[in-house]
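DATA SHEET
Item: assembly model
Revision: 1
Owner: S.N.
Input lines:
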Amino acid sequence: MGTAVTTLIKDSPPDAPERRPGRPIAVKRRGRRENLAGYLFMSPWIAGFLLLTAGPMAASLYFAFTDYNLFDSPKWIGFDNFTRMLDDPRWQKSVEVTAKYVVIGTPLKLLLALGVALLLAQSRRGQAFYRAAFYAPSLIGASVSIGFVWRALFSDDAAVDRTQSFLGFDVGGWVGNPDWVLYSLVALTVWQFGAPMVIFLAGLKQVPKELYEAAEVDGAGPFKRFWSITLPMISPVLFFNVLLETIHSFQIFGSAYVVSNATCGPADSTLVYTCYLYQKGFKEAQMGFASAMAWMLLLAVALVTVVLFWSQKRWVHYEEASR
Amino acid sequence: MGINGSVERRTVLKVAGASLATAGLAATTGCGGGSGGSGDGTVEIRFAWWGAEERAKRINQSIKLFEKKYPKIKVKTDFQDYVAFWEKFQTQAAGGNPPDVFQNAVAFLRKYDKRSVLLDLKSQVDAGNLDLKNFRAGVEKVGEVDGKLLGVPVGSNTMSLVIDEKVFKAAGVTAEQGWTWDQYFAALKKIHDTQKVAGDTGYFGIMYLYDLYLRQNGKAFFTEDGLGFEESDLTEWWQDGYNRVKAGIVTDPKKVEQLKPKSALASGDGASEFTWDNFTVRYATEGDSSYGLAPIPTTDGKETGQYLGSLMLSGFARTKHPKEVAQFISFMVHDPEVGKIMGYDRGLLSTTEQFDAYKPTDAPNQAIAKYEADVAEAGLLGTITPHPAGADTVEAAFLRVASDMSTGKTKVSDAVKQFFSEAKTALAT
């Protein structure tokens, strides 16, 4: 990876070589025309960004401080939405459910991704097939249909329930059981470990073979080699995956919504943060409250990101630290 | 890797952004043509409802008839299931672009009237575009709120008790007109003790049933602007419910959840279930026992508190075609052919023309017709209290909190407090 970066820099032209005094006007005009063309080509994206991202974000920030039911014009209420939120038992529940999901789901998913990546990193027959097979669930992951499949798998008297009964512990379907249903969502995200796995695979490929050879000569066993070579060498990739997957987990919505049949239940057991936000905004028409919730989520994710970045100094090793 | 990765990601985002923007532009242009007219005087109205595929088939068939009779009016349709329908409707209404005509229910009348979304159909009745004659049993009153006519009923239904006839018979229990709650609960216990199956699938979480119970006791679930009962009333109702779940007389709520969308009655995990009478057709298809309709238990051996509820058709207050909207509604509720096509899909047909035109041939529909006739004959029918704005949110909260309570996730006293606090917020907005 490091080599790719350096080549890129080496090959790129030196900064603004043609900007000399007395440059012909035609060239200048051509430059301007090229700029214009550039902006023109970018304009769909710029328009999309302004209309669909920046605009709504600004509006939502304003609504967060108002009482807004979509029909009457928003009333400014200062920080009321935020204080109300902290007193709301369902909001607290949604934070609790989301935290549980993130804390349990993310490490499991990364562990599995790393484990399988380690297995697939070795060359063996049918490697391409296995890689594709393990990656496939991530491709369909975001779709609503997989939520329905999950619901079908984990409901009463379906595949999972029958297997359980066959093995002798009968808890009924997971969907509908407030103590279990969240774990079916965890299982869903863990199953979609393909994306971090691919990134891990790329990271593993970058570890120089000489290090392993040297360690072997020194008599290091497989575990020692993993712990002292592989892990430190892929720690930047690991950091990247932890960051991405954590942020991703915080935003869980689709699977909770579909598996719970749009109720985020039963007994609020799948009331993840975004699901409550959605209910407040679109079912109860409390757009101000929902906007405030969205900004709280943004703050929370930002905070977690900052903490992770701060912590990386202690455990992430960059190979080219000498640069 | 970081640099390469992020460059690629940015490219991907750009492409995504561009396509989103294009989609956005396309959508904007698409919206414009919504309910406009065209050169030859043809107008297009949009009609939306909630329901399943079966209802969609029947409605499309009815619309074909309408378009044949009114060739200058085109009807564009849209449907979702109940929850998705109201989510979409709310967003459309807030954006000033709801359908011209739509299916409506009593819980939403005040809510959307308050926000000036609903067309007062009185003027169209006066103009002769909408016929209000021949409604059965005064059911047209359901759409009247605060002196305005906000909806026209397409059908009427009432709460009922659906029973598994085989289980009731095997347990030696009969359901009789005028039986009391004590007798009902004794019957559930007998069923549980002799048949080893829960007697009821969760009566305590059904808002419309609790309303009947309150009405039997001189109260009501809703007043015009709030709740018509006290915390102590609900504590008693839910505490008893919880005890009965614990005792196994009422189906384990976890089981009920796990079975959804199938009903616990149809799966044989309960012997009776309170629901709207026109919903009972589903049990015959879902389950393999035989199902019958039984009377609502009473407090005094007489009053059931029942009334006719209804699905309605409403119009959008700022529709460009109020006349055509009224003509469409009038046709849909009066035309005998439409009655034959729709059947009891949305409750018993509301006008005599349609009611007389449709003679059910299958047992469940015949049972529904007989049930409502019996209820009407017993002279029990009262009138519904139009629900206050926010009633839909209150109903959802009632169902959810009852489920928390019955699974033991929340103590009864906390559940009651939570419900009252949520209801207060919902009714205030």
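QC remark: Residues 1-36 of chain B have pLDDT under 50 and may be disordered.
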